[in-house]
Design goal:
368 residues; single chain
Length: 368
């Protein structure tokens, strides 16, 4: 599903994430503004989750409303795996050979590493991929179940499914909140656990459901998309200091107000993720129907960044972290330039010689 608006949204997402991780270089002397940007990086991940949920939702609805649905379920999951797994396993093999070979290497291969509470990943960003893969499997199971049960009311079933997953993830977070001492709880990176964050892509899926089945609501939301965009941006600014993955006590800009109002442990650790996914979905609305652009260079730029964003996402954090700790006698500027050069050079090679050939073969061999 190619769309200029979605390409721009994906470009913004990867830019925010890379910018946040670039601050590894300023960890020791970071002023408050840098912590502000670090927290913003988590929102970039939220944007990816919501966008993925929206795209998968569009595919699911197309399948459920079409014929021979069961014959396409295996193709659905296979196409997703061919998009995400080859580059992941390529990076993983590199780490196994040149960095470290963990005793629980099978947890990385089969993704059950994503069910651990403590973040001990050798790949810094792999936790979000585990959530994505679980989401794909659950969606495939839902498609199969709805088809086998011969469910006629697809839109109601999808809405019930969304509400159940959101309620389940909030319930999991509530369980951790009620059964963990705060001093221990706040250092457990439970926010990187699959079941805890499963509701994030669901908000994107709900946009697809509304777009397809509730056209009056969707048209109303589209007419007011810029108002929704502004409200979402303000929520992000108000809540930047509430990132449960960051134990931040300093506040910046307008978020001082948000910190005073929302810095409640229950909201921060139980409800915040649902609100943040909801706000990310609000931003996405503004990009679904994007203004027409005639500049081919503008389109080509965002198309390429969008297509390479997954490869960049996989490798950028570890490259930035490594160079922030090495060659410390060299200026930060030079090390940052080297890091960006490596990130985009390696990601280009991955896209050019791994992702594009595999996707071209996938589209020929397994059309959906």
């Amino acid at each position: 599903m190619r769309s200029l608006g979605l390409d721009v949204f994906r470009t913004i997402s990867i830019f925010v994430v890379v910018l946040a991780h670039s601050l590894f270089f300023f960890r020791e002397k970071a002023p408050i503004i840098f912590q502000f940007i670090v927290n913003l990086g988590q929102w970039g991940v939220n944007f990816f989750f919501v966008l993925s949920g929206y795209l998968i939702g569009c595919i699911m609805i197309k399948m459920l409303e079409g014929e021979q649905c069961t014959k396409k379920i295996d193709i659905f999951i296979l196409r997703r795996w061919l998009k995400t797994l080859p580059e992941y396993y390529l990076v993983l093999v590199f780490f196994f050979i040149f960095v470290t070979f963990p005793s629980d290497f099978l947890a990385y291969v089969f993704f059950y590493k994503g069910f651990e509470l403590h973040d001990t990943n050798i790949l810094g960003v792999a936790w979000s991929l585990y959530i994505e893969e679980l989401f794909y499997l659950i969606c495939a199971a839902l498609i199969y179940m709805l088809y086998k049960l011969n469910v006629k009311n697809i839109k109601r079933s999808l809405l019930i499914f969304c509400c159940l997953i959101i309620s389940f993830s909030i319930g999991i977070r509530l369980y951790f909140y009620l059964n963990s001492a705060y001093e221990v709880y706040k250092y457990v990176e439970f926010y990187k656990t699959c079941l805890v964050r499963l509701d994030a892509p669901i908000f994107g899926l709900m946009i697809a459901v509304i777009q397809c089945y509730y056209t009056n609501i969707y048209n109303f939301l589209q007419k007011n998309k810029y108002k929704i965009f502004i409200v979402s941006v303000f929520f992000i600014l108000f809540s930047l200091d509430l990132n449960p993955g960051m134990d931040t006590h300093d506040t910046v800009f307008i978020s001082k107000w948000g910190y005073r109002v929302f810095n409640d442990n229950f909201f921060k650790y139980v409800l915040f993720f649902a609100f943040s996914a909801f706000a990310s979905a609000g931003l996405l609305f503004a990009f679904i129907s994007f203004p027409e652009v005639t500049s081919s260079r503008f389109k080509a730029f965002f198309l390429y960044i969008s297509q390479s964003s997954y490869a960049v996402y996989l490798i950028h954090a570890d490259i930035l972290l490594t160079l922030s700790k090495t060659y410390t006698n060299t200026s930060i500027t030079l090390r940052l330039l080297l890091a960006f050069f490596l990130i985009y050079s390696i990601s280009y090679l991955m896209v050019r010689f791994v992702e594009w050939p595999i996707l071209a073969w996938r589209d020929r061999r397994f059309p959906l």
